[in-house]
Amino acid sequence: MKRQPHRLEERGSILDTLLDDTKEYSRTLGRDDRARLDQYLTSVREVEQRLHIAGEWEKRPKPAAAVPPPADIQDKKLFFEKFDLMLSMARLALESDSTRIVTLMVDAFATPVFKLHPDEETTDGYHNLSHHGQSAEKLRQLDDADRQQMALLRKLLDGLAGTHERGQRLLDRTMVLYGSNMGDANTHDNTNLPILLAGGGFRHGEHIAFRRDNNAPLANLFVSMLQNMGLEVEAFASSAGRMVGLESA
């Protein structure tokens, strides 16, 4: 733990030296070159600010997790157990303030035939199940697998709701976004994506739907989330404003 603050201090001193040298050098440059150098120095200042924030975070006392270190699951057939483990680790990371951002991807391509239940295995990998071709058996297995994922997501949300931070539920201080990059994986249709948003102090318990032929950009949701984090942004990627119908509680 002591090594990290030292590394941050070293990097800060290097940036200080660099700034001193470039300020002296800038006096010999023409107007256009000074403008380019100023852009570069602005980037350096932003790095300095990030180092300062990182240094302050390193000095803060961290709560201890009251659970033993997780053991990795090697068996790729235990898909739900592995997913549950990753979600549990994400929750502990947030509880212990080890990070404020966690990204997890359920990689269908890396998921072979897996255990749907203790006494039942799927007939194909997750990716091939999603390309079901309207096969009744594949659809049954896919529906079963998706419902089990939803149960694990609910377990995560219950855990965040049952943990308190600064007088609030951790769930109310955390935005949980869950979804897919496909609206219909069978046809590779990436419109009308199934997206779930929980926590973050939003008013929930609603299904916000839009016209299929004139849908709202998903990036609108990202604008609402960024603003909910306190960022003064009005646009993100292909957004057309905030997400209509998504209000704070």
How is the topology of this model organized?
Blueprint: H1 3-26, H2 31-59, H3 79-95, E1 115-117, E2 120-121, H4 126-130, H5 136-161, E3 164-165, E4 168-169, E5 175-179, E6 195-199, H6 219-228
Antiparallel strand pairs: 1-2, 3-4, 5-6
What does this structure look like?
With 249 residues, the protein is mainly alpha-helical. Among the domains are: 3-59; 79-178, no CATH class. Helices cover 45% and strands 8% of the residues. The protein contains six helices and six strands. The protein has helices at 3-26, 31-59, 79-95, 126-130, 136-161, 219-228, and strands spanning 115-117, 120-121, 164-165, 168-169, 175-179, 195-199. It has a two-stranded antiparallel sheet. The protein has a two-stranded antiparallel ribbon with strand order 3-4. The chain has a two-stranded antiparallel ribbon with strand order 5-6. A hairpin with a 2-residue loop joins strand 1 and strand 2. The longest helix has 29 residues, at 31-59. The radius of gyration is 24 Å and the shape is globular.
Q: Which percent range fits the helix content?
A: 40-55%
Low-pLDDT segments: none
Order of helices and strands: HHHEEHHEEEEH
Q: What structural class is derived from the secondary structure elements?
A: mainly alpha
Helical stretch count?
A: 6
Cα-to-Cα separation, first versus last residue: 39 Å
Based on CA inertia axes, which overall geometry fits? Answer: globular
Percent of residues in β-strands = 5-15%
Rounded average pLDDT = 86
Largest sheet: 2 strands, antiparallel
Number of strands: 6
**Spatial strand sequence of the major β-sheet:** 1-2
Radius of gyration, whole Å: 24 Å
